[in-house]
Write the structure tokens for this entry.
Amino acid sequence: MISVFSRSGSTRRLTVGTLYRACSVSFLLLTATAGYAADFEPELGGVETLSEPGPHWLITMGFLAGAYVWDADSGEMKGKINISDYTSAVGIDEARGMIYVPGSYYSRGTYGERSDVLVFNDLKTLSAVAEVEVPKKLAAVFHRAVINPVGDRFYGLYNMTPAMSVSIVDVEKRRFVEEISTAGCAFVYPLSGRRFMQLCGDGTVQVISLGADGKESARMRSKQFFDPDTDPVFDFAVANGDNWILVSYQGLVYEVSVGDQISVTKPWSILTDEDIEEGWRVGGSEPFAFNAATGIFFALTHQGEDDTHEDEGTHLWALDFATQRRGYTIELEEPVGVIGVSQDAQPLLYIVGGYPNTIEVHDASTGRHIRTIDEAGSYAGHVQTFSGGGR
């Protein structure tokens, strides 16, 4: 017989029989647990393979929030791309089945030896398969045009230290080619051939051409067509085929085309005289989108004072780009700063915002709401689309 103390301090006596029964119960429990564990088959990690991207696939990306791949037709997330904390955008190369991720990395996380690379990710698995080291100058400005194709074989990466330049990478041979100085001119907007356009701080645009080796072969500059002091243009341009559409803070729309020379159309205004009297403005971080197949131009708008171009939109306006007339409007439940549109003939419109993000999917031709994708990341800085819309 054994004496033990209970929690109350009183003495309890355990007989050998009591101990035997307790040990027997414990043994049976252990045996049962062991049998259950033997039948349990743990799930092992693996790599899923994605289907071919559809015209309504898109990538949403936010600062320190990762890059998410979505199918707007189903509302499902297809995967997440591993990016650096300083990645501003990715390059979608459907022809080669790659997603290119420019990123800066530090040996101690937030400090230490810095390395800048362009990471090649397989589009089917979203896994890194190669990388190319580039100059330690990648711009962390969170803008969609920090990476874009230049011809079929090269990609341009925008640098800012704050000196501006563009690093050229041969994605076919997977090697760095050269760094091109672009003082006063920013970003990489692709053109036909091995050319790209940039926006310049003096009210002009610049076009740089590459030779077959990927090195600069020529450049030209437009005449000044906007006043950066009185009415600058947004640095967010949208493509219309091989042309680029630029919008000023006061709502003037310019279209830039490049042949042997650079041509800029006479501007027209998104805002009517009545709109201006009522204080309507355009604004947001990515406040414009265009679908060339339907000719519909989209703009985020709000009512505010001058210099509120960074304010998010409370409304979305759809305009016929050819006639310059407004079609439908959408009053947004919450202000948003980012929109995008697919580039097919039955386009979907993406309105992204909130915290956490939601993606409002609409029929771009009619404005009809189709679905809402909830919790689409913590914050969306921009939208990139597949099938010809990734630039």
